[in-house]
Amino acid sequence: MRSVPRAVAGYVRSAPGTYVWLAVLFVTTVALHHMSPRFETEFLRQRSTNLHELSEHPVRVLVASAMWIAGGRWLPYAVLYTVFHAQAERRLGTPRWLAVCAAAHVLATLISEGALLWGIRRGVVPDSAVDTLDVGVSYALAGVVGVLTWCVPRPWRYGYAAAALGFFAVPLATGRTFTDLGHFTAVLIGLACRPLAAGTGTGAGGGAGRTRIPKETRAAGRR
Hints:
This protein is mostly helical. It has eleven helices and no strands.
């Protein structure tokens, strides 16, 4: 039992970006719980990647929107971050993991909001949709789910990819909201980030490549 806290601390240290981000989300979620519903809505709208804010403050809202969770439920994200983000950061390394998160968050946001703008101009969506509340970290999460495909050994990789695509494709086919489009786009972006996952997967035979330990190599040389 004494080794459990040490193991947990080691796991957290192996994915620093994931758990710093999660800590920020914890603080902002606590802050939301101290706001009145009316103030919370307006507060989040100013940090939302809706069409109005993107046209006025694109960089600010793209960053700020990834620091808040609409709905105020932090614990489910703690689980999801541990299962997906931490694994991706450990396998890809912090810089490449962060690049996948940024690409999925930014590109999926721009594509989904672009589709929303198209709908407004075609008269399919009301003009009031320019102020739609759109904050959260789910696009980055979907992108990480996608890129982890290349870390799964064959033949399980294909089942994982099918499950990930199906999970995001079904809501898009049935609901067809701009957020459904954003999530599906994000998982595709994650899949397209295969070069960033180079060297993290397994060989064609499905067996993980063995990491050489210097001490082991020297011992082999003496034999």
